[in-house]
Design a protein that fits this description.
Blueprint lengths: L11 H27 L9 H5 L2 H11 L2 H18 L6 E3 L5 E3 L9 H21 L3 E7 L2 H4 L16 H11 L3 E4 L1 H9 L14 H17 L10 E11 L2 H5 L14 E10 L29 E4 L9 H9 L3 E3 L9 H7 L2 H5 L4 E7 L17
Parallel strand pairs: 3-4, 3-9, 7-8, 7-9
Antiparallel strand pairs: 1-2, 5-6
Helix pairs in contact: 5-7, 9-11
Length: 383
């Protein structure tokens, strides 16, 4: 008679691997279920074209990627890659001695020169439209951190095509009659004097850089004015040194690591400003076709100058410094992540602009956005 086959036992290591795999599947299922629940069980689809374009799958994948398990795994992966391979992800590169730089400042864009030329034409067009309304425009271009602080790039390289990018772009505007400032000399002068105009682990400028830029811009504005001054609306009440978490550390995904494993933290000068309660201003008279009266919009509290631009205008007290140098009130309509056109589109289409337009519009533009893909970054302003 044939003997019964001996029972097959799964080796313990194989069994443990199977159990771990099953547990991972269950955790993933639970994590995705949580993400689906938090998304409200709905995927907005406006029509058949959205469905054929894969919109539901893209939205599902996005929700799943933000759920607990994938997000946690991605965080651990970023930390390990940063420590073991010096890889800080797709958006950040490390130079020398804990200096961090945006990849956007180091990567050429396809059709970059064409997009830069198109942006220049948009600025020229806006300048002409504002002039017809009696509004002066001043454009200030902030050079890349990797340009001004190039001595800290280490093994990183800036593409040669970027060498004359700001000079050529601002020259194009100037030839068309646009008032424009290239802040490279101002900030590079600070760097040469060992007063760093840029933060080491952040994409923005220091207070020294912001104040130097404000002083340079105010000089140009004074040349456009009959320079009658008013209260700035802000007063400095003190200065102190405070720790500043770098936005590039967070962008690299390593801000959760112990401080000993992160780039050396920064301590920066931070000025304190407080609004001035009582104001009886005589507003700046800008020679842009307006009537010469002190009550600008029928309300002497309204500012004569508005700022649009990027997060540079919202960091390191740039606008309070500008207001102090001008001795005039300045309204800040800059937008974090506004790139080239974000703040301009928002402000020019707003009730604030339509009902109480300024006499001068200061448009702050970072160099790194000049050649960037403009498919989703067009001015396209209509009344």
């Amino acid at each position: 008679m044939p003997t019964a086959a001996p029972s097959q036992r799964v080796p313990l290591p194989d069994a443990m691997a199977g159990l771990c795999f099953l547990l991972l599947l269950l955790l993933g299922l639970g994590s995705n279920g949580q993400a689906w629940f938090e998304a409200g069980f709905s995927l907005p689809i406006t029509g058949w074209q959205d469905f054929m374009a894969g919109t539901p799958m893209q939205q599902t994948a996005s929700a799943m990627a933000k759920s607990g398990l994938p997000a946690g795994a991605a965080q651990i992966d970023r930390g390990l890659c940063g420590q073991l391979a010096g890889d800080l992800g797709p958006r950040v590169r490390e130079g020398e001695r804990d200096w961090l730089f945006l990849v956007d400042e180091l990567t050429p864009h396809e059709d970059g020169e064409r997009d830069a030329a198109a942006r220049a034409q948009e600025v020229i067009w806006l300048n002409q439209r504002l002039a017809r309304q009696g509004i002066a425009l001043l454009v200030a271009v902030i050079p890349d951190k990797s340009r001004v602080a190039s001595e800290h790039l280490g093994r990183l390289q800036r593409p040669a095509i970027f060498a004359n990018r700001v000079k050529d772009w601002t020259a194009r505007l100037a030839q068309a009659g646009v008032e424009v400032i290239d802040l490279n000399d101002t900030l590079a002068g600070l760097q040469a004097r060992r007063q760093s105009p840029f933060l080491r682990t952040d994409s923005h400028w220091t207070e020294a850089g912001a104040e130097a830029a404000a002083a340079r811009i105010s000089e140009q504005i004074q040349r456009l004015n009959s320079a009658e001054q008013s209260s700035p609306g802000w007063q400095m009440t003190g200065r102190e040194r405070l720790p500043r978490p770098g936005d590039l550390v967070k962008l690299a995904g390593i801000d959760w690591l112990p401080m000993a494993l992160q780039p050396r933290p920064e301590s920066v000068q931070q000025s304190r400003f407080e609004p001035i309660a009582t104001m009886t201003p005589k507003l700046l008279r800008i020679n842009a076709g307006h009537a010469e009266n002190d009550d600008l919009f029928g309300d002497a509290e309204l500012p004569a100058i508005a700022v649009i631009g990027s997060s540079f205008s919202r960091n390191s007290n740039f606008v309070p410094f500008l207001a102090q140098h001008l001795q005039a009130r300045v309204a800040n309509f800059a937008v974090d992540g506004g790139d080239f056109s974000g703040a301009a589109r928002a402000y020019l289409g707003s009730a604030a602009f339509k009902q109480t337009p300024p006499r001068l519009l200061l448009w702050e533009i970072p160099e790194r956005v000049l050649m960037a893909d403009r498919r989703l970054d067009r001015l396209d302003w209509t009344d």
